Amino acid sequence: MTAETLAADLADVLRPLLGPQTDVDNLRALTGGASRTTWAFDAVTGSQRRALILRTGPPDDVHAGMELEAAVQAAAAEAGAPVPDILVASDSVEALGNPFLVCGEIAGETIVRRIQRQLDDDGRAKLLRQCAQALAAIHRAAADAPGLTEQDQMAEWHQRLDEMGDTTATFEWAFRWLAAHRPPPSPLRLVHGDFRMGNLIVDGSDLAAVLDWELVHIGEIYEDLAWFCIRAWRFGAPSSMAAGGLGSIDEFVAAYEQAGGATVDRATLRWWLVLATLRWGVICRFQAERHLSGQTRSVELAAIGRRVCETEWDVLDLLEGAS
After folding, report:
1. Closest among 206, 157, 122, 208 to 311, alpha carbons compared
2. Angle between the 249-258 and 121-140 helix axes, to the nearest 10 degrees?
3. What is the pLDDT of residue 297?
4. What is the mean pLDDT of the chain?
5. Cα angle for residues 247, 251, 254 (degrees, 5° grid)
6. Which residues have CB under 8 Å from 122's CB, separation 6+?
7. What is the pLDDT of residue 294?
8. Which residues form the Aminoglycoside phosphotransferase domain (predicted)?
9. Residue 85 is part of which domain span?
């Protein structure tokens, strides 16, 4: 589908919502997004011009459908989390050739190194508190949207590694350690699934919106807490700022609990940090496989694959002295 055809079809989708004279102007593809394509555009109705975002991508059995994304974002917003205002979402391929979601454009920055450069110490502390508050709100949100499923993260990522037919001694040892030391399960909640720097819009030192809900599911709060704190999402920040490169894990957890999140057991969080780091390692290996198999020849995917050894080091570092 050409950009011109997409713009015409998108206008047809928006006219029942915004008015029969609505047209789409300045449609342009945005960078980023491994599983979905993101477009920015203006919806023009008479003298009114509204900046909007279109997300679209083929259906699959890994990512949440667009209608589910819309439903859980509405639930998260009701609980107090900052999310984009969604106009329409559909799992049908009829209108635009793929499922789609249209939401309001939100001003701010998503590129983490740019965010880091504009923050001083007070700004980092403020943003860290707001990230913790948003995550606490997500975990309080209703988890009854149709299509939400429960996921066992350890089983899922071990299965994905096994399906590739390739592993490492470090990964296998880590999975055995996780199985031997698994903590008791905690209550199930709505889980974002990819809550990290890079999936947040930051305006100055304020959290403007939580993005990329395609991995949303029902799980334990520790999954989101740990994922935010692995080294990959610090983007070069020192270990003293392990929580998203903004502050310490203790500061992040304290702010989360203060915002109404569940009480966090530190030993349980450590277990989930190992699993989260291992998850990133499996993802790196999977991206390499996409390149090596010829499925998607890409220098970027090959470069991500080279980071497998980094995650092995991180896993060993986390498990140093573990029984």
Report:
1. 157
2. 50
3. 87
4. 94
5. 155
6. 205
7. 84
8. 27-272
9. 3-104
Written as one letter, the residue type at 136 is A
**How confident is the model at residue 62, as a pLDDT?**
77
Reference 232, options 167, 199, 281; nearest CA is: 281
Total domains present in the chain? 1
Alpha-carbon torsion angle 108, 111, 116, 117, nearest 10: -80
What is the residue whose two structure tokens read 């920015």? 40
Residues 34-71 as b or e (16 or more Cβ within 10 Å = b): eebbbbebebbbeeeeeebbbbbbeeeeebbbbbbbbb
- CA–CA distance, 311 with 269 (Å, rounded to integer): 18
Place of tokens 């894990």: 249
Length of the chain: 323
Element (H, E) at 288: helix 266-292
Q: Residue 176 falls within a domain, yes or no?
A: no
- The residues that bridge with 56 in the sheet, in sequence order, are 37, 100
Beta bridge partners of 189: 219
Instruction: Tell me the C-alpha distance between 79 and 137, whole Å.
Output: 5
Domain membership of residue 234 (yes or no) is no
Environment class of residue 265 by beta-carbon count within 10 Å: exposed (0-12), middle (13-18) or buried (19+)?
Answer: middle
